[in-house]
Amino acid sequence: MLASILASGLAVGAIYALIGVAYNTMFSASRVMSFTAGQLGMLGGVLGSLFVLRLGMPYLVGLVLTLAACAVVGVITEVVTVRPVLKSLDQHLYVLSTLALALMIQHAVAVQWSTEPHPFPRLFGPATGGITDEKFWLPIVACILTIAALEFLYRHTLVGRAFLAIAEDNFAARALGLPERDLRIASYALAGMIGALAGFAGGALLLAFVANGPLLNFYGFVPVALGGLGNNRGAIVGGFALGIFQQAANFLVGGIFSSVAVFVLFIIVLLVAPQGLFGAPATRRV
Amino acid sequence: MSVTRRQFTAGAAAAGASTVSFPLPAIAQSEPIRLGWLAAMTGPSSAPAIGFNRGVVWAAEQINAAGGVKGRKIEVITRDTQGDPTKAVNATQEMISALKVHAIWGPTNSGESLAVTPIMARAKMPNIHPCVVDSLIDTTKFPNAFRLAPSNTQWDDAVRGYCLKIVGAKKVAIIGDTTGYGVAAVNASAAGFAKDGGEVVYKANIDATQPDMTPDLLRARNAGAQAIVVWSTSTGMDARLFNTRATMGWDVPFVGHPSMSSGEIAGLVDKPANWEKVYAIGYRSCSYGDDGKLPPRNRELVEKLRGKVNLQDTLLWWVAGGIDAVNLVAQAVDLGGSSPDNIIKVWNGLQKYPGYFGDYTFTTTEHNGYPTEDVVMSAASTAKDGSFKLAPGYKG
């Protein structure tokens, strides 16, 4: 039972963590919580299945096209739903605009693809069913590689430092001559690719299924809130913790009550640490 | 003799009425029989309607090619409701008020039917449909509504009977999804097992997107379940249950909802063997035995349809049900005329009417026309020409 909790919990947790990182990447560049993050994960699975299984493309080509398509969705999100509401962030209009786009994506996929789950291609041979199955380890590997790539980007490249600069203080970054709008678009494209990778790597586990959109929107947001807005490390720890806790709750109290258990824990954590476990307390200059 | 203005007006009105009323019977006898067809041809629940439609079109063509019903052609007027109750309501009102159809076949899903059944009842519109929700048939509230397919209760009876009498499983686990249908079906099924002496050792509703079914199947196994009864329309959940059973090395049978025999499951199971020992609700008329042969009536039908109606991507019972719906309307008009009262009167008197999907019996107090004994279990992975092999234990 422990092996099953860990294998399944860590795999699902890795997907939640990646969706959390996609939320954060968009948030850092714009101070907007874009509720399209879960749909990017869903699109990763659906497009991966479309390109590789239905159109018969090689895996690598399918992956590249999926990442590219979701990067475009990320850019569209920025242009259509974020940019028009940036001037009135305090009114939180982005909640409506990003949710509206998320619903449009959801319905477009339901009509064009199907509302039924479809199989996702096996990248490393037939299913074994046990804990060594790729559906369990592939999302974890994808998550680790993404963390490493983001660390490299943010710490060792000029573009990455520019991302950090606008995340820290976009007014100061603009004053220094950084192209804030271009960097924001690039951040949304990057978030699109991270979300797509979550769906592609988790395709064997979650299937190519339109209903994964709302699921990932919801459970991908929990690690962000637990870990602190904009804090990738917090989102990753929160994602894995959520996955394991959810799977343990599935075993101990049953599926229908595991969601209740997850949200009870979520509320307790936010009562104890409103800024999230890894977020800095809000400070006000006096 | 003087004629007052009042006498003149009355006389003129009588003469006018007699003038316009004479040709009416002639028109009624030659006008086409307008059959309204509320079909969710597009949208998420379109698969059944697409199958039914093939039968409807074929049956109408057959009748019209043979000269129609007493010389009257069948005119099928289709409206795509997209599975949306609002669109179904609009289409129903159009059919009743503007198109003046003689009878309505459909809708094909219960959500739409719940919305339109009272409207049709108010208009006394003869309606026949294949929706399973029990409350849709009520001869007091909806004396115009007739069911051509089994109800939920009939499905439930068949599943329970198979588990208790044929599989010999007294201890069962009942699993459904978290939709309204899943929760209601699990509770009704559990009550039925308890009533008939079965023991429900585990009962659960699972979110259809839950990626790992191990916790629930472990609990069911530890509780001593000898069969797993599944009430869900989610093929993803079905396939995950089958894959998990294989991983656990458990050979418990799955019995339940027809979605377990959906062709989509073939692509979702890790290997074909995982789909064996799965028995989904099916129908005797559309099931073949060990000899691979359908019952004679439908063997003949499949031969007639070959090359004309595609059965590879649909279910035979959908096509057969569509044919039967058209034939039932034609039969009613043939015997009693096309007025609503006559159609309903003829249907109320049908005794074992030999359709392709089933032998229907309706009375004034029972509008569930499908015979319960013909609801059987099918081996889920054995689809052939839209039909399935009878599950083990039945006489072919």
Quick overview of this protein structure:
The complex is a heterodimer of chains A (286) and B (396). By secondary structure, chain A is an all-alpha fold.
Number of domains of chain B: 2
Oligomer state equals: heterodimer
Low-confidence stretches of chain B: 11-26
Main sheet: strands, sense, barrel of chain B: 8 strands, mixed
- Specify the CATH class of chain A: Mainly Alpha
Number of domains of chain A: 1
What distinguishing features does this structure have?
heterodimer; A: 286 residues; mainly alpha; ABC transporter involved in vitamin B12 uptake, BtuC; 12 helices; 74% helix; globular; B: 396 residues; alpha/beta; Rossmann fold; eight-stranded mixed beta sheet; five-stranded parallel beta sheet; 13 helices; 43% helix
Layout of secondary structure:
The complex is a heterodimer of chains A (286) and B (396).
Chain A: H1 2-30, H2 37-54, H3 59-82, H4 93-112, H5 134-156, H6 158-168, H7 170-175, H8 180-201, H9 203-206, H10 212-227, H11 232-253, H12 255-272
Helix pairs in contact in A: 1-2, 1-5, 1-6, 1-8, 1-10, 1-11, 2-3, 2-4, 2-8, 2-10, 3-4, 3-8, 5-6, 5-8, 6-8, 10-11, 11-12
Chain B: H1 5-21, H2 24-30, E1 33-39, H3 47-65, E2 74-80, H4 85-98, E3 103-105, H5 110-122, E4 127-129, E5 145-147, H6 152-167, E6 171-177, H7 180-195, E7 199-206, H8 214-222, E8 227-231, H9 235-248, E9 254-256, H10 265-268, E10 278-283, E11 287-288, H11 296-305, H12 316-336, H13 340-348, E12 353-354, E13 359-360, E14 375-384, E15 387-390
Parallel strand pairs in B: 1-2, 1-3, 3-4, 4-5, 6-7, 6-8, 8-9, 9-10, 11-15
Antiparallel strand pairs in B: 10-14, 12-13, 14-15
